[in-house]
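Reproducibility note. Readers wishing to regenerate the assembly model reported in the main text can use the exact inputs given here. Chain order matters: entities are listed in the order in which they were concatenated for prediction.
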Amino acid sequence: MAAPSVATLDPADIARVSDLAARAREASRRLVLLSRADKDDALRAMADALDAETDAVVAANAEDVERGRAGGMAEGLVDRLTLDRDRVAAVADALRDIAALPDPVGEVVRGSTLANGLQIRQVRVPMGVVGMIYEARPNVTVDAAGLGLKSGNAVILRGGSAAESTNRALVTVMRRALEEQGLPADAIGLLEGGRDAVRALLTARGQVDLIIPRGGAGLIQTVVTESTVPVIETGVGNCHVYVDAAADLDKALAIAVNAKTHRPSVCNAAETLLVHASLADEFLPKVLAELSGAGVVLHTDAAAGSAAEAAGIPHVEATEEDWDTEYLALEMAVGVVPDLDAALAHVRAHSSGHTEAIVTEDRAAARRFTTEVDAAAVMVNASTRFTDGGEFGFGAEIGISTQKLHARGPMALPELTTTKWIVEGDGQVR
Amino acid sequence: MAAPSVATLDPADIARVSDLAARAREASRRLVLLSRADKDDALRAMADALDAETDAVVAANAEDVERGRAGGMAEGLVDRLTLDRDRVAAVADALRDIAALPDPVGEVVRGSTLANGLQIRQVRVPMGVVGMIYEARPNVTVDAAGLGLKSGNAVILRGGSAAESTNRALVTVMRRALEEQGLPADAIGLLEGGRDAVRALLTARGQVDLIIPRGGAGLIQTVVTESTVPVIETGVGNCHVYVDAAADLDKALAIAVNAKTHRPSVCNAAETLLVHASLADEFLPKVLAELSGAGVVLHTDAAAGSAAEAAGIPHVEATEEDWDTEYLALEMAVGVVPDLDAALAHVRAHSSGHTEAIVTEDRAAARRFTTEVDAAAVMVNASTRFTDGGEFGFGAEIGISTQKLHARGPMALPELTTTKWIVEGDGQVR
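Running the prediction on these inputs yields the following structure tokens for the assembly.
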């Protein structure tokens, strides 16, 4: 897919993005000078302002919801879009939680004194200007602004058009709170306009330091292929659970069911269950019955289909496509594999590099799985649902990277920083 | 600049790159299983093979040199292209040096035990398949292959067409050595063909994990704008030396001259000298005389020009372009600034984000400079020439990143890896 030539963009969009980025850059130069206390005070002031302006936010959100319903938006999406008073309180609290997290900026990553007396240290510093492109859920607007501020970055936010009024209200409140703290409002920018405005952002290389897309596969693919600004790809999770011959079957049952059904709509939910052939008679009917009982539509290969058939469990025949499908729903592909090699080959062929799990009590099998599977997270005897910034103890999450550059897996505050080498000498020359 | 549509590429080039990438991927799956000892043995075997095949390599190189000379190649480039027996011995030794470095793969970056008993650890793992696109110097072919192998990556090498015969000979020798060690020859791939072959590599997203361009600004710009594969931008260095009012003038003189003249053709050489106005009468004529005496063409602003004029030092008037020019030669832009703020503003406007230096004995000035300058390396009282993997004690260098994502500054073995989260549990579910 070809990136659009900048020349085909409306000059007005380019100018608007340039202006937004220049103001964000100016703001970022102020942010780099702030102490942790300054930033935490501002985050709490933003939270207080959201609490105080709850009515205005809820009213703006009602406009979006009404427009969505009038346009035939599915109820699931309407629910994600909706901000009632409780949800506004929750997003405000999220800012207070971010204030309580340690400041990544200034952390010394490594350092040494060289033979010639030069003292070198690699220090975490803000990225500068970070663009976030995301879809309907308006809580991302507040999270991204908060994580950006805490990590010393100015952000340019581009939410879904369905949440336009809500995002405008949230950003207005947060910008005003920053100004009242004596900080630059332009630390939080909102990009409005059509698709060309997004394209202008994606090609603002040098003006924007990083773009993080959050949303469905289509959004992410567009950003990744069209952007000349560095991107961190997030999210698509075609996660597998492999139940090994040496599995503890109680653990396997609990993990398979939890990984699929605990929250099917998210990227760390499992989409495929692979079962070792030696477990086809005893374990397989049991796990299929449990999944089916939980409402999961089972897409089975021949062997799993036979086991389901024999046990009278509803199932459909898996197509080749099923093995690559991120259902994000109560559906699961189920296959029987003759051995660990076949399981590894299947995962290799179909993994999206997010999270892969093995259930086994065999140390050698676990070791091979964790070594050979190429993914952001590899689990042994644990549900795929644990790949999450909150679960990992990061206290926040800006997304889950499925790429290998810069960050891989759950991203929190340190992943929003870069580093700088500071070299102090006494007149050294080469 | 628009990326070319894949559809406009010759299908033969796409097929060739796909095949090369698939074989590299297959090889990378073997590399991930190797112990450090296996890899070091292979590196030493490659070095021995290069020593043994010196004659063949030198003969192949002679073809390239002859073709280059016949085509009117400048002597400087001919020198960079030439591999005599001593230089072959040096590149072989570089592989032995890499064997002596610690293995980055397997390093535990961080980890913890969660409240629920899950043991999580973030471990360095190879990227997978790394593409290197570079220009004339054939030693990069051997360095990149060696650093790739040590970090567990398969590499796809694309050298300059001027070094075609040399690169083919070097790669043939190294691949054969790998095979003799029982390792996959496809760990080292060579991409031949025209510009379309390079374009096919740049758009092989998913098949290639990372591309590192090394070379001039034109090459890097092409790779950065055309690639859909993640790229680490390297190299362009418009480095400044700012001599503050509170500078020790002996140090300032030594640093300015060293930064400009020690090796003018490299990216960490200084291109602009900024001098505080209070030093215009005493220090400025002295440093200009020294630089001029070392053969440096001085491009001066009005104030520096006056000082040069008064002291009878040859100089030319700086144009706006000079402040953005990476001369890579014995030329330097020289300006006088009224204060630290003006120096910071100048650096901000013209820095390429590589290395910036201040010379000062004033702690507050040093602190402001290191905090406010946004660059991969910021030096206090040291020559810009120290931004280098060897100088920093990394033992090797694959390039100097001037971007903020993944790696910033000198890149060595750890920067050629990514990480994987390994999560070990005992049946945990959410």
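We highlight two features of this model. The two ends of chain B are 47 Å apart (CA to CA). Chain B touches chain A through 75 residues (CB under 8 Å).
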